[in-house]
Amino acid sequence: MLGTLSFTYTGPRNFIATDLETKPVCLSLSRPVGRPVPAEVRVTIEGFRAFTDGGWHLEKVDVIGGDGRVIMGRGLPLHLRELVRPGISPGGGQLVGGDDRRIQLCTVLVTRALEPGAKLDFSFMVRGPRHARIFPTLELNARLQGQSSFTMIGEPVILHNQPGPPERLELRTKPAHDSTGLFQGVLFATDTFGNPVPSYTGEFTFSEEVALQEKKQGRYIIKGQANIGGKPIRIEEKDGANSLDTVSPPVHQRGNSTDTHYFGAIHFHTDLSVDGDSRLADAYAYARDWLNLDVVAVTDHAPLGYQWDETLQINEAFYNPQQFVTLPAWESSTAYGHANIYLRSPETNAAPDHWDPARNPSEVTWPSDAIVVPHHPSAGEEPFSREDYQQALSHGLYWTNYDWSIPNPRVRLVEIVQGRGDFEAEELDDYWGITYGNRGASAQEAFKMGWRLGSVGGTDNHQAYPTQMNGQYIGMTCFIAPELTRASIWEAMDQRRTYATTEVHIVADFTVNGLSMGSEGTHSNEADLYFSTALHGTAPIERVEIISNGRTVWRAEPNDWDVALNEIPLPPPDNESAYYYLRLKQADGHRAWLSPIWLDTPKNAGETSGS
After folding, report:
1. Of the candidates 448, 480, 503, which is a domain's last residue?
2. In 8-134, where does DSSP find H-type helix?
3. SS3 of 506, please?
């Protein structure tokens, strides 16, 4: 009987990410011949989040050209909790997501059957998302009276979201050249929202001696030679044909240190999350081939079962020691705080089956080869009791602020910045972009409670764009490590040899009395205290500050691209323990937060709380 029904789609199949105008779309179910058929009719979409977050509006449902009557059974989801039924949850794997990667756009009940020649029209107004590489699939399904399941009518419709025209030029170089001065980078154009444009071609001039090695799908691989022992270089590039120009990040010599700066993206989601879009393999290829990153880690919401197997398989397929590091990771989203879990190896006993949505991640006993990183710690709702857990979730309250009162030695880092904002301090600050505070859960509040945490940056992007949110570059982490291997990068995280940036390759080093970022040491109030730093910006560095125990204890406004300071005096600790970290802001608004260094009086050493 269903074979007598047909499905047609009218509207655009190719959307442009930079075109924010809504477009009419119509899905029609027609009944050309045969007996009248009563039914339920449902429109579903796969790859939903980007295309349904404000992008779909159901205008009307009509019976055209014949007899029939329908009533609305279910309209567009109004809230995320409707997307994850059955099983309201603060965000887990597809276990709580219902139909795998699909949601209902609407369901209607045909209360008077369609006569032959009539059709049922679903009229939508649709706007595509800002991210390209999103390919949702539309389906029309029907269930006849007396049947227990829906059957797809006709063929699914695949929609495409393409990048807009080239508006920005990017030249992404590695931060250090080799011992002979050789360096490499990737040159490409993006649209207004940061989507790479594969069709891009240009006519280039460079400020330094570089060579275009090859072109791959709109991106150019470049190589060049820097002066060994000289200042960092920044390559200015102009494309006269398209009136575009850019400046590369600083390229500097590794120097005498055995460590190198590696940049990576370690907090984003794909369609393996219940509320995500786009494929993991596409995200990793984009991070490696376009963004020219060194490290990447997807943190999907508790990808259980085959989804965790798929995550590990793709991690291993992309892992290339000394070239590109992938870390096994996942997000433990709970009612009492969210944290990402990073595994030293795929065999680490800290897989997503450890997820418990009713417990704070700090309550779990994690093995020594797992690292727990709370994120958006002060972006949750006000605390609610264990007894109010289910009721809070039913009202859409998915998590509270992170509970720092629970000590856990495997909590080694905290996400300072991401797509929701900056969680550095309690006091809101427009200059530093501190948008969440006054909730007792910021990074500085954790430091005050005795936690010793390094700094990382992320995005929480849910469309598989590792360093972006809403078309803007948001957050990234730098790892200081001796080599580009999984073990070395994980060790840098464990030792807090990391810092956060707002997704620019700011190269920074910072020591206090010779102690490096993330270190702990002792200090007598009678001894001199000083810091040294070397900072290489991607724009003039407008301000540099040293923060200790929640106060700014040193400030300068160098307004220079490169800043070198040696043994600058600092005030001694104002009590038995003190932390010191450096933060900076560039003239273009980009910022960086370096991991703290902790100093204890000799009698207090080894007696800290938290982690």
Report:
1. 503
2. 49-52, 80-83
3. coil
Please report, for the chain, how many H helices and E strands are present, in that order. Answer: 7, 43
Q: What is the count of structural domains for the chain?
A: 4
Cis amide bond preceding 86, omega within 30? yes
Going by C-beta distance under 8 Å and a sequence separation of 6 or more, which residues neighbour residue 397? 381, 384
Q: How many C-alpha atoms does 5 have within 13 Å on its Cβ side? A: 27
**Residue corresponding to tokens 């995200």:** 283
Domain span including residue 266 = 261-503
Domain shared by 207 and 271, yes or no: no
Single out the residue of 302, 331, 330, 298 nearest to residue 315, CA to CA: 298
In sequence order, what DSSP letters do the residues of 155-193 get, joined into one string?
A: --EE-EEE--S--EEEEEE-SEE-TTSEEEEEEEEE-TT
Task: Tell me the two tokens of residue 548.
Answer: 């200790």
List pLDDT tens digits, range 289-313.
999 999 999 999 999 888 999 999 9
Cα 404 to Cα 426: distance, rounded to the nearest angstrom: 14
Which residues fall within 8 angstroms of residue 412, CB to CB, at 6 or more apart?
Answer: 371, 372, 373, 453, 454, 493, 494, 496, 611
For residues 83 and 181, state if they share a domain.
no
Show the low-confidence residues of the chain (pLDDT under 50). 1, 86-88, 97-98, 609-611
What does the alpha-carbon distance between residue 592 and residue 584 come to, in Å, rounded to a whole number? 5
Residue 223 has, within 13 A of its CA and on its CB side, a CA count of: 7
- The neighbouring-strand residues paired with 102 are 46
Distance CA 538, CA 586 (A): 8
Asked if 201 and 342 sit in the same domain, the reply is no
Amino acid in position 219? R
Q: Which two tokens stand for residue 218?
A: 């709109």
pLDDT tens column, 140-174: 988 887 788 888 998 999 999 999 999 999 999 98
What's the rounded Cα separation, in Å, for the pair 44 and 267?
Answer: 29
Helix (H) or strand (E) holding 26: strand 23-31
Nearest to 413 by CA among 487, 518, 551, 552: 518
Distance CA 303, CA 422 (A): 27
Verify that 190 and 295 share a domain, yes or no. Answer: no
One-letter amino acid identity for 317? A
> How many angstroms separate the CA atoms of 115 and 157, rounded?
26
Whether 422 and 520 share a structural domain: no
- Cβ neighbours of 302 (radius 10 Å): 29
Give yes or no: residues 241 and 265 share one domain: no
Residue 46 and residue 458: Cα distance in Å, rounded?
26
Domain holding 358: CATH number?
3.20.20.140
By DSSP bridging, strand 210-216 and strand 219-225 are antiparallel
Q: What is the C-alpha to C-alpha distance for residues 134 and 47, in angstroms, rounded to an integer?
A: 7
CATH of the domain at 213: 2.60.40.10
DSSP-derived secondary structure for 127-155 = ---S-SSB--EEEEEEEETT-SS-EE-S-
